[in-house]
C-alpha cells in the first residue's frame, strides 16, 4: 500500500474532526461534541503558521493525521513545536504511517521555522503511545503539564 503525505487544507476539516473524536474515545473514552471539534479544526486551519495539520493518505483517502503548533521560547530564542492530535486509522497502524508522517511534517517545519525542539504530552496511562514516542527519539523533558480552566469544559 502506497502512502502519500501532505499539508492538510480546509477540505480535510471533516475527516480531521472525525479522527480527533475517535482519538478522544480510543485514548480517554471521552465522547466529544463533533460540531465543537469541527469548529476547532477549522479555527486551527485558519491559524497557519501557528497551527498546521498534516495528513497521510492512500488512494485519495485520508488515513492519518497530526497537528503541529508552535510556541515561542525566549529562553532558547526559537520555536518549540508541539505535536498533537495524532491519529492513524486502526487498519493502517503498525505500517510506519505515523513515523513517516511525522518525518514529513518535521522536515517541512524545520525548513520554515528552524525550531529548537519538538514536544508532546501523552496520557500517563497510555503505555503504547509512550513506547512509540520513545522509539522515535522522544524523552521525558522533566516537566509536569498542569492547567487551570478558564471556561467551562465542553462535553
Automatic annotation (TrEMBL):
* Record-linked CDD domains: NAT_SF
Indicate the segments forming the N-acetyltransferase domain, all copies: 3-155
Write down the InterPro entries for this protein, in alphabetical order.
Acyl_CoA_acyltransferase, GNAT_dom
One Pfam family this sequence matches:
Acetyltransf_1
**An example molecular function term from Gene Ontology annotations:** acyltransferase activity, transferring groups other than amino-acyl groups
The record's PROSITE patterns line, in alphabetical order, gives: GNAT
This protein is called N-acetyltransferase domain-containing protein
Whose protein is this, by species?
Planctomyces bekefii
